[in-house]
């Protein structure tokens, strides 16, 4: 059970790091993209990552409940 929670935690950390590095990316002025467009895209990505992290946390809770049922000898 702890193994699954560790995997989920590592996944969340990696997603957070990816989201953070995306927001720190320099503005690409060669493609005509201004700073406000970059901020809008970054905000959109951040919202999507937060939604995904909430879904992962919910799935982790459901997995934890199923593992508890299996440990108790019941069927999920």
Tags for this model:
mainly alpha; 0% strand; 76 residues; elongated; 2 helices
Describe the structure.
The protein has 76 residues and is mostly helical. The longest helix is centred in the C-terminal third of the chain and has 37 residues, at 35-71. The two termini are 15 Å apart. The radius of gyration is 18 Å and the shape is elongated. 78% of the residues lie in helices and 0% in strands. It has a domain at 1-15 and 37-69. The protein has helices at 2-23, 35-71.
Classify the oligomer: single chain
User: Which regions are unreliable across 5 or more consecutive residues at pLDDT < 50?
Assistant: none
Element string (H = helix, E = strand): HH
Tell me the total number of β-strands.
Answer: 0
Helix tally equals: 2
Please outline the major beta sheet.
none
Computed CA radius of gyration, to the nearest angstrom: 18 Å
A few lines on this structure:
This protein is an all-alpha fold and 76 residues long.
Helix-strand layout with pairing:
Elements: H1 2-23, H2 35-71
């Amino acid at each position: 059970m702890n193994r699954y929670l560790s995997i989920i935690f590592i996944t969340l950390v990696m997603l957070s790091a990816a989201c953070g590095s995306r927001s720190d990316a320099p503005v690409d002025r060669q493609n005509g993209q201004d700073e406000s467009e970059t901020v809008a895209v970054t905000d959109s990505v951040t919202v999507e990552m937060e939604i995904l992290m909430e879904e992962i946390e919910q799935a982790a809770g459901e997995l934890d409940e199923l593992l508890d049922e299996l440990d108790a000898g019941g069927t999920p």
